[in-house]
Amino acid sequence: MGKTHCDISMSLDGFITGPDARVGNPLGDDDGRLHDWMFAMATGEGAEVLDEAYARTGAILMGRRMFDVGVEPWGDPPPFQRPVFVLTHEERDPMPMQGGTTYHFVTDGVDAAHELATAAAGERDVGIWGGADVMRQYLKAGLLDELQIHLVPILLGEGVRLFEELGRERIELKCIRTIETPAATHLRFQVLR
Amino acid sequence: MGKTHCDISMSLDGFITGPDARVGNPLGDDDGRLHDWMFAMATGEGAEVLDEAYARTGAILMGRRMFDVGVEPWGDPPPFQRPVFVLTHEERDPMPMQGGTTYHFVTDGVDAAHELATAAAGERDVGIWGGADVMRQYLKAGLLDELQIHLVPILLGEGVRLFEELGRERIELKCIRTIETPAATHLRFQVLR
Q1: pTM of the entire structure?
Q2: B40 burial class (0-12, 13-18, 19+ CB within 10 angstroms)?
Q3: For the complex shown, is ipTM > 0.95?
Q4: Does residue B167 sit at the A interface (CB-CB below 8 Å)?
């Protein structure tokens, strides 16, 4: 069985989207700046970090909101090429897409979604790829083993914060790898229990 | 003339103190966790990072609140060993302390304080060592050249955020150095104008 990791891009001031993220404006008003390291600027080590994240991940878990804002821009085939489990309150049939992605909708909570994704991932990891609230739910549930933050050297000033409403129960992590690339610093943390 | 840099310890979730920082509880309810890398755990590279920050800094600038909560625990001699300029609204005579620290109180604003500190620093840097509001004032005023964040792998959940109320005018930075030590990841950014 693999691990459960979260991979997410964050501005230095802690935002994972610019202001006003919504359907039709999936990344908020940030023009994709937080994800440049994956696309326009993805060369050399940046591309390797991205390839590695895909290679280790057997199934992806995401929140309903991320799915709603993302499904149109991701298109068909979506970039995932593996099963995607969407945490939602709405019963819905699976959506098989081209290229190996199938969106599965899970209505019975974080534990059930994690079990399904773990089974689908096989020997590989479950990747929690957003949004912030879903990452936090798995972190608080003690189900997150690793957190890789792609720290982008920009101050956005506003947007959706990755770390918010965590409460006062401290969580210790350990930085287990740092890779510096021109467009981001890739920090991998182990969650200590 | 040196640069103006900010050197500050921050939790992974963006806090520079734990909850309830005030006089008598200068670091908030964090038991000094954010500053372990400087003290208990300062060995090898961690100690080098701290020594370097002191060596490059000819004068220190800080906010009134940081001074108020810090002056008692810092004691006499304080750890600074160089002139310290405190931004305040209250006229007050300089306080010469043992070991080379003198606290100067500047009442005519961020520019004036910066000029005084720059003159006192000579060839070396002005170090803006906190708090968050003072760092942000210099950042917004375009007077900050570099920002070194000692990123501590803990989620505090609450406290004083370093980056808040920055508004929507984006600020681009460039990561110019990363040092990973057991207790913190030391990220140095150049502020791009």
Answers
A1: 0.93
A2: exposed
A3: no
A4: yes
